[in-house]
Amino acid sequence: AGIETEDVVNARGGNDDMLGTFDDVVDHDTEVVEMEESKGWWSFGGSAFLAFLFYQTLFAGIASFFVYLEPVSGGSGIPEIKCFLNGIDLPRVVRVKTLICKVVGVTFSVAAGLPVGKEGPMVHSGAVVAAGISQGRTKFWGVDTSFSKFSDFRNDREKRDFVACGAAAGVTSAFGAPIGGVLFSLEEGASYWSTKLTWRAFFCAMITLGTLFAVRNFDSLWGQADIDKLFSFGEFNSLSGEASNFSIWELLLFIIIGCLGGLIGAVFNAANEHLTIWRMKHINHSPSRRYIEVIAISIFVTIISFVMPLVWNRCTELPTDMQDWSNQEKNLVEALVPFRCVAGKEYNEVASLIFTDADTAIKQLFHFREAGQDDSSTFSSAALFLFFVPYVFMATIVYGIAIPSGLFVPSLLSGAAFGRLCGHLLHKLDHTSGTFADSGTYALMGAAAVLGGMARMTISLTVILLEATGDMQYVLPLMLTLMAARFTGNVFNEGLYDIHIKLKNIPFLEPEVPTIAERHEIVAGQVMSTDVKCLRPVERAGVVYELLRNYSHGTFPIVDTASQGTLYGTASRSMLCTLLQRRAFGSPDVLSEYDGCGSLGPKRLSPLVQWDTIERAYPRYPTIDDVEMRPGEENCWLDLRPYANTAPYTVNETASIQRTYRLFRTLGLRFLCVVNHNNQVVGIITRKDLLPEALADSLIKGRNAHLYALENFA
Fold it and tell me: Which of 35, 215, 472, 501 is most solvent-facing, going by the fewest CB within 10 Å?
């Protein structure tokens, strides 16, 4: 705290172009800090540390406040979007309130100098925008826009498709990678994919990129675009003419870096998993504790970030011979921070990575020349190590607190530092004779390795990095690095997104059939729920009301009692509540003999409600609490035949669990009726019945069936 403010020339930055518009975010913590002595309280006595601490903590507190307003806006949002596209209807995930809290919150969380990124929240934000467009109405504003006229979009399947397209648009706006965005939705998002969804996602990514170009190049009146504005990671060029920047034999080294990155990612995931479990037990149940945790961690990160350049306490001369350097490299040299050094002549290596925005720091690690022909080194091995270890430690602690935060930027920045450290050590071992590729190439491989080790993405991440670099020479190195990182990480644990999904106990269905189902012969009849609540094609309103009141099932099978209980169709809970609310039932005397004989004629027995009237309330259908039964209405007849889904998906009780699982997940179902050979309903399967734990319990019950029979007999 005794350092004078004028010694701090640069502070951490964040040119977060959220959907292309975050470039102008007011971020005191990211601007150049040159506070002059004054008598006002805001000068903090001329102490740079106190000013740094105040603004960092203030912005972190504001970011956490928006999560307090809408808890779903915390974190990256990618696990929630994955679950939504998997067929799980999580509450408030795609609401407008969530979007506002997410956008504003991530602005302040990145401005707070925390090791977080904006890319994950941008994916979530794009999904919310897409969901809003498909629905055309919002409870937040209380208005209904003209988009609601497109009633074909207002259903669960179309909404999921729009959310998948929105996720692709979010990745496009974050990295300027439209094809990578489409592949991200395919690899990490949608459980069900089709040709129509492919071109929809491609169209959304194209429009997003066009809008991004128009905003970024507005200053040039949409003339020729600068290369820096075309590629998120800057321009990558061949340093040796027509030859590539690496040798073929170095692909083995890239694979080793990928394995090390996968190991780093596995350690990161394991540490964050245990920390998240601790948070769930001691902190997450109290909003006030979550807020206090954010303030405490912000203070901790601020102290570490300020102390690291002080511990380095070494000044390095700025590069002077830059005649052959590109304008991009010269601009990056100007971004180097002279913390406690002579401005314009020297810079602090650690401060240049800490007190600049993450995007600039990544570009510095990627593009500063160090090919081994001379002894010049922009970042030394000790400085990279001093930055890498504390930064990964801080990122592990920060991910999961009550702020909107992403994982991409911390992974890329720490990985770039790790990769450049490897490249620098190789040049030292080679005595700078130029045998190995430049350190920027190793930095790119390290960034891919660490991010791949944490998220376990391969196809989409390869294309995203290629589009962000704009250089096709790195196709094979990136593929090998990411595959090595994925294989190595999978030896120890799962990806971080999958870990957080399981910690939240969300019934997420993986793409592959659970291992226990592959090893043992399990049929649908073993895993189904036999306590099925059924309705008749024409049922008394009181029976339907009590059934909805006592059970929370989302769908009820309709069985025809005239044919020994064969499956007639299904009725959704939302439809039944709507019919009861609109009193679409007939007189008690209209069918006095039905209870006895069970036979029905073709005559309609209750007033008909048009289907578009029922669907107009989507997705906020009336609940059973909104229904009020008047005296005498319990005995009225409700004719369900015009509204029933008479062709529901079914599976025979003898079908293998592999076929049942694939049918359920591929079609995005929420229930599956199980019938016998006579088409009589014998059970029903939900997604919870297909989880590995449920399958294991079903297998144990099947093996001990005789014990259960003896207990029941006794």
Answer: 472
Close Cβ partners of 704 (under 8 Å, ≥ 6 residues apart): none
Helix (H) or strand (E) holding 674: strand 672-675
Query: How many whole angstroms separate alpha carbon 241 and alpha carbon 234?
Result: 19
CA distance 218 to 409: 26
> 629 near 652, Cβ under 8 Å?
no
Checking if the pLDDT of 283 tops 60, the result is: yes
pLDDT band at 190 (very low <50, low <70, confident <90, very high): confident
For residue 12 the two structure tokens come to 């951490």
Pairwise CA distance, residues 693 & 517, whole Å: 11
User: 483-533, pLDDT tens digit by residue?
Assistant: 999 999 999 999 999 999 999 999 999 888 888 888 888 899 999 998 899
Q: Where are the beta strands (DSSP E) in 341-418?
A: 346-347
CA 534 to CA 569: how far, in whole Å? Answer: 10
Question: Would you say 428 and 374 are in contact if contact means Cβ atoms under 8 Å apart?
Answer: no
Locate 54 and state its tokens: 């105040």
What CA–CA distance (Å, rounded) separates 105 from 366?
29
DSSP state of 186: I
- As a dihedral over the C-alpha atoms of residue 174, residue 179, residue 184, residue 189, rounded to 10 degrees, the angle is 110
For the range 244-247, what are the long-range contacts, defined as Cβ-Cβ under 8 Å and sequence gap of 24 or more? 244/473, 245/437, 245/438, 245/440, 245/441, 245/473, 246/437, 246/441, 246/473, 246/477, 247/436, 247/437
Least confident of 317-331, 442-456, 539-553: 317-331
Residues 6+ apart with CB under 8 A from 119: 170, 171, 174, 175, 406, 408, 409
pLDDT the model gives residue 227: 59
Tokens of 151: 């009633």
- Tokens read off for 275: 């920390």
The predicted-structure confidence for 649-696, as pLDDT tens digits, reads as follows 999 999 999 999 999 988 888 899 999 999 999 999 999 999 999 998
Lookup: tokens for 497? 């997104």
H-type alpha helices, 283-380: 287-312, 327-334, 349-354, 358-367
Q: In 3D, which of 362, 325, 328 has the Cα closest to residue 443?
A: 362
Q: 3-state class of 3 per DSSP? A: coil
Kindly write down the DSSP assignment for every residue of 241-254, as one continuous string: TTB-SS-GGGHHHH
Q: Is the dihedral of CA 298, 304, 305, 307 positive or negative?
A: positive
For 639, half-sphere exposure in the C-beta direction (CA atoms, 13 angstrom radius) is: 17
d(CA 268, CA 499) in angstroms, rounded, equals 12
- Residue carrying the six token digits 């270890």: 389
